[in-house]
Structures are given as structure tokens and as C-alpha cells.
Automatic annotation (TrEMBL):
Biological role stated in the UniProt entry: Catalyzes the stereospecific oxidation of squalene to (S)-2,3-epoxysqualene, and is considered to be a rate-limiting enzyme in steroid biosynthesis.
EC top class named in words: oxidoreductase
Location relative to the cell: Membrane
E.C. designation(s): 1.14.14.17
Domain Squalene epoxidase: 232-498
Pathway: Terpene metabolism; lanosterol biosynthesis; lanosterol from farnesyl diphosphate: step 2/3
Keywords: FAD, Flavoprotein, Membrane, Oxidoreductase, Transmembrane, Transmembrane helix
GO cellular component: membrane
Catalytic reactions on record: squalene + reduced [NADPH--hemoprotein reductase] + O2 = (S)-2,3-epoxysqualene + oxidized [NADPH--hemoprotein reductase] + H2O + H(+)
Domain FAD dependent oxidoreductase: 78-108
Stretches that traverse the bilayer: 472-493
GO biological process terms held by the UniProt record: response to hormone; sterol biosynthetic process
Designated name of the protein: Squalene monooxygenase
């Protein structure tokens, strides 16, 4: 179906709530796109000198590269993106490269300082290459990561990502999240057709034509307290895990099984450099990985929705120190004494399979979350961006929101291999690895550790799933089933007793109780029989 609406007519330029155009200064000029895109001609103002906090980021690393993000154009955008975190920035770059005029509104353009999004899996790195953003990992002192060392009791096992078939640069990376995000913002804001602005989006603007409600733009507040409205045929909400806007687009079912307590260890050596260290400790899971040449991140998983900060230093010192490798004790205690202990809730939220509000999309953590212990969030999100970019590429005009919305139904199917594999792995194995007094759960935890320690096919199968290099849900289910059989087999061999039989049966029931709800939340049909869903084959509208 061909769409011929004129987006400029439907979507007026960004205006503030008093009705004035938002851009009030600068030299407006009729701009020409350097790409071949049949847009209604709009007036563009290029290189408007607007002061931005992006410039004020002070790290020496960026002193030479940071530039003002100019408000590039004053006309209506094709796409509004809410949030310039990992996802918003990468999506902006992808769409702008394809010739869309993108208006990004970000609450805070200063370099973020968070304990999230510090490990990019090799599969995510490949997606970054597909998006042309791999250079954002340069000059930020990012560290190469080639696998995990898994610790349990006195034993440890080394697990490698299956990187043999790839060029040397393909590996995991770990880094300061803020540096990575800032590099992406900088690169994105150099594009002529990107308008990056600091402001907090407060509302999605909707048009109700009695049969269907369509999102037509956003209302946002700038730092000076002014309210503005911006309009576009498509609004993508990437406002992260604490999203305020997702409620109006889906039915979020957020679970918070635990929190991460984060510390930075300085000037110490990991027992195995280039590996993340995952310790299945007596009380919780502890993760250590390098985020720069001088700093190591330590994350301690504490079950529960809220973790009290008072008393945390004491808990870490008296209980946790003894659980981490001996050579890190001094650095760990120094980190506690420095006092910069951070806490983040670990949320999990299945994607709503068909959030169908024309004119809007959710992406990133606002749309879908999984337990972060496996470091898969950015990989899933970057993979989603590649799928979305491919779906939008052939569509010239985005202004028929209803057709576009129907076309994008296939997004929810095509994203499934990567998203379901990583989501299921993260949520199911988190439960398997978390501490429980139940004997069957203890057996399952031990069996999984031992299964991974078998090496060869057994560990490489899991590692290709963990790495995001083999996004294949069926393979995950087969490996999980094999782990359970292995666990039961060990209990029953050489001579099964009645007690062991009972534990074996409970082990199977625990494993099913863990994996089935996760698969159900992902959608059995979308996960395993995607090709049987009609929207899998949809032709784009308006070709
Ligand atoms: C403790 C923890 C550790 C994690 N570790 C990893 C890891 O190692 N590897 C990994 O891949 N994933 C990890 N994740 C998940 C990962 O952080 C997320 O998947 C990723 O950051 C999602 O990116 P995003 O852009 O959707 O959200 P964010 O990165 O949170 O970005 C959202 C952006 O939107 C802006 N914003 C919010 N509200 C508004 C508004 N109203 N108006 C305008 N702007 C707004 C925010 O300022 C922010 O810049 C971790 C998560 C947690 C909780």
C-alpha cells in the first residue's frame, strides 16, 4: 500500500507550549539532504549554536573530541527518540544514517555515571559493527573480554566465548558505561539530520480519532522550565529501566528479584585478565570484571527488591570479602573504605508481544528487561535496533501510522531469536545459580556448574548462547535439558536410593518450574515457531 500523506502537514515543527517555535536563534537556511530521500522540503537550520552540557564533560579522554550537539533542523522530524542512553543513541545513529530526520530528547546530556551496561557480549559487538558504531569503543580504555571464570566452593572452571571463526577484534568488551554512551552521543550528534536536545519528556501526545488512538509526538520540559511540544510520525521511547512513559504503551510486568551492590576496585590484578569472574558464593552471586586498565567492577547480587545501604559496608567486609579471590581482598576492602557503594535494582520484564499503539514504539529497557548478571541487555537492544532499522529502511514515508504499526508487528517476531535466547538464559540461569536451602535446587546449581566444567561441546554450547553469537532458543532448551539429565543421572548412578530418586524428581520439577514460566513469558510460538506467524512475512507498506 502506498502512503502519500505529507508529514510536514500532519506534523508541525517543534513548538513550545506558548505556541512559539522552539528554535529562536541561529541562521536558518534551506538545507539539502545529502542522501536520496523523497521528503517534503522543510526549512532546516544547521549548526545552531546552543550551549549544551555535553560540551562540559570533563574527562581528558574526550577533551579533544567533544563537540556541541547542534540543533540541526527546525522543521518536523521523521522520528522522535526519547532518551539518549545506549539504545536511544544507537537508534538515532542508525535511523539518521538512513536519511531520517531524528529529534532526540535526553533528560541529561552529561556523561552518565552508573553501574549498568558495562559488558558488551561478542554478539553485541557484531551488532555494533552492523550499525557502524564500533569505533565508539575506541579511546574509552575499553577492555577485551574472551570468556568467564566460574567459581564454586574451592573449584573454578574457565569458559571461553567461541571466537575462533571471527577476526581478532570480535570479542566481548567491558568499559565505563558513561564513556561509551557519551561517545555514541558525540558521534550521533555530528550527523546533519540529528537534532539532539536536553529535555525531559513528560507526556506522549495522542490523537484520538474515535477508532484508534495514535501517538503524534511528545511534550517535554527544558532546563529553563519551558514546556515544548514536538511532533513526528514515529516516536520511539527509549527511556530506560525506570521508564515513566511505557505505561501508556504496554502493560509492564516488572519483577525485581534482586539488587546489585556495586564497587570499583582500583589498581589490582584479576586472577585471569580478560575474563569476567563469576563467583557462585555461599550467599549470593558475585561478579568481577575489568572496566578500564586501572579499574575492576565488583557486583554483589543481593536477593530482594530493596537493599538497605546502612550496614552494607559492614556486610561486604565481614561476609563477602572471604568469598572473593584472595588476591583481591585488599583492593576490595579499600573500595569499601572509600565508601562509593552503589545499588541498582535488577529488573526483569518480558516484552509485551504486540504493543500496538500507532505512532509509537518502545525499545531498550523500557520495552524488555532480563536479569543483568549475564550482561545481555545491550546486546538484545542493539540486535533489536538492527531488526528495526531493516524493517524501516524500505519505507519512504512514516506518516501512515496505522499501516506502519501493522508492518512493525513483524519486529516482535524477528527480534525473538536473540532476545528470547538471552532473556531465557539470563532469567533461568540466574534462578539456577541463586542460593536456595532446597536440596534439589542445590543439586541443580551444582550440576550446572559441573556440566559447564565438562568443557568441549558441553561448555561451548552454553558459551555460544551466552556470547550472543548463537541466538537459537532451541539450542538453549536442549542444553538446559541436558544439564537436568546430567544432574539426575549423577544422583541415580551407580545405585539409586529412594531418597536420591525423590531428590532427582524434585530436581526435574524445579528445573521445569524455572524454565517454563520464562518460556511462557517469551511466547512459545514466537520463540520456537516464528515462521508459523503470518506477520513474519509482511511486506513493507508504501514501497
Ligand atoms: C545493575 C545492572 C547492570 C547491568 N549490566 C549490564 C551489562 O554489563 N551489559 C549489558 O549489556 N547490559 C547490562 N545491563 C542492562 C543495560 O544497562 C540496559 O539494557 C541498557 O542500559 C539499556 O539501555 P537504554 O538506552 O534502554 O536505557 P538507559 O541506558 O537507562 O538510557 C535511558 C536514557 O533515557 C533518559 N531518560 C529517561 N527518562 C527520560 C525522559 N522522560 N525524557 C528524556 N530522557 C529520558 C535517561 O537519562 C537515559 O539517558 C545492566 C543493568 C543493570 C540494572
Amino acid at each position: 500500500m502506498s502512503i502519500r500523506c505529507c508529514s510536514a502537514m500532519l506534523y508541525p515543527p517543534s513548538v513550545n507550549c506558548s505556541g512559539k517555535t522552539a528554535i529562536t536563534s541561529g541562521c536558518h537556511s534551506a538545507s539539502k539532504f545529502s542522501y536520496n530521500k523523497p521528503h517534503t522540503p522543510l526549512l532546516f537550520s544547521t549548526h545552531l549554536p546552543i550551549a549544551s552540557p555535553l560540551l562540559k564533560t570533563t574527562t581528558a579522554l574526550r577533551r579533544n573530541t567533544t563537540r556541541l550537539p547542534p540543533l540541526r533542523f527546525s522543521g518536523a522530524a521523521d522520528v522522535i527518540i526519547v532518551g539518549a542512553g545506549v539504545v536511544g543513541s544507537a537508534l538515532t545513529y542508525a535511523l539518521a544514517k538512513d536519511g531520517r530526520r531524528v529529534h532526540v530528547i535526553e533528560k541529561d546530556l552529561r556523561e552518565p555515571d552508573r553501574i549498568v551496561g558495562e559488558v558488551l557480549l561478542p554478539g553485541g559487538y557484531l551488532k555494533l559493527i552492523e550499525l557502524g558504531l564500533e569505533d565508539c569503543l575506541e579511546e574509552i580504555d575499553a577492555q577485551r573480554m574472551i570468556g568467564y571464570v566460574l567459581y564454586k566452593d574451592e573449584k573454578k572452571t574457565k569458559l571461553h566465548y567461541p571466537l575462533e571463526k571471527f577476526s581478532y577484534d570480535v570479542a566481548g568488551r567491558s568499559f565505563h558505561n558513561g564513556r561509551f554512551v557519551q561517545r555514541m552521543r558525540e558521534k550521533t550528534s555530528t550527523l546533519e539530520n540529528v537534532r539532539m536536545e536536553q529535555g525531559t519528556v513528560t507526556t506522549l501526545l495522542k490523537q484520538d480519532n474515535k477508532t484508534v488512538i495514535t501517538v503524534i509526538g511528545v511534550q517535554y520540559k527544558t532546563k529553563d522550565g519551558q514546556e515544548h511540544k514536538a511532533y513526528a510520525p514515529l516516536t520511539v521511547v527509549c527511556d530506560g529501566c525506570f521508564s515513566n512513559l511505557r505505561q501508556s504503551l504496554c502493560r509492564p510486568k516488572v519483577e525485581v528479584p534482586s539488587c546489585f551492590v556495586g564497587l570499583v576496585l582500583e589498581n589490582c590484578q584479576l586472577p585471569f585478565e580478560n575474563y569476567a569472574h563469576i563467583i557462585l558464593a555461599d550467599l549470593s552471586i558475585i561478579i568481577l570484571y575489568r572496566i578500564s586498565s586501572t579499574k575492576v567492577r565488583c557486583l554483589v547480587d543481593i536477593p530482594g527488591q530493596k537493599v538497605p545501604l546502612p550496614g552494607m559496608a559492614n556486610y561486604l567486609k565481614t561476609i563477602v570479602t572471604s568469598q572473593i579471590p584472595y588476591e583481591l581482598h585488599d583492593a576490595f576492602i579499600s573500595a569499601i573504605d572509600r565508601g562509593n557503594i552503589r545499588i541498582m535494582p535488577n529488573s526483569s520484564m518480558p516484552a509485551d508481544p504486540y504493543p500496538t499503539t500507532p505512532g509509537a514504539l518502545l525499545l531498550g529497557d523500557a520495552f524488555n528487561m532480563r536479569h543483568p548478571w549475564a550482561g545481555g541487555g545491550m546486546t538484545v537492544a542493539l540486535s533489536d535496533i538492527v531488526v528495526l532499522q531493516d524493517l524501516l529502511k524500505p519505507i519512504r514515508d512514516l506518516s501512515d501510522s496505522t499501516s506502519l504499526c501493522r508492518h512493525l508487528e513483524s519486529f516482535y517476531i524477528l527480534r525473538k531469536p536473540m532476545a528470547s535466547t538471552i532473556n531465557t538464559l539470563a532469567d533461568a540461569l540466574y534462578k539456577v545459580f541463586s542460593v536456595s536451602p532446597d536440596e534439589a535446587r542445590k543439586q541443580l546449581r551444582q550440576a550446572t556448574f559441573d556440566y559447564l566444567s565438562l568443557g568441549r561441546f558441553f561448555s561451548s554450547g552454553y558459551m555460544s548462547l551466552f556470547s550472543g553469537l548463537n541466538p537459537f532458543p532451541l539450542s538453549l532448551v536442549l542444553h538446559f535439558s541436558a544439564t537436568v539429565f546430567y544432574g539426575v543421572g549423577r544422583l541415580l548412578l551407580p545405585f539409586p536410593s529412594f531418597k536420591r530418586l525423590r531428590i532427582g524428581a524434585r530436581l526435574v520439577s524445579c528445573a521445569l518450574g524455572i524454565i517454563l514460566p520464562v518460556i511462557k513469558a517469551e511466547g512459545v510460538r514466537q520463540m520456537f515457531f516464528a515462521a508459523s506467524i503470518p506477520s513474519f512475512y509482511k511486506d513493507p507498506p508504501g514501497r
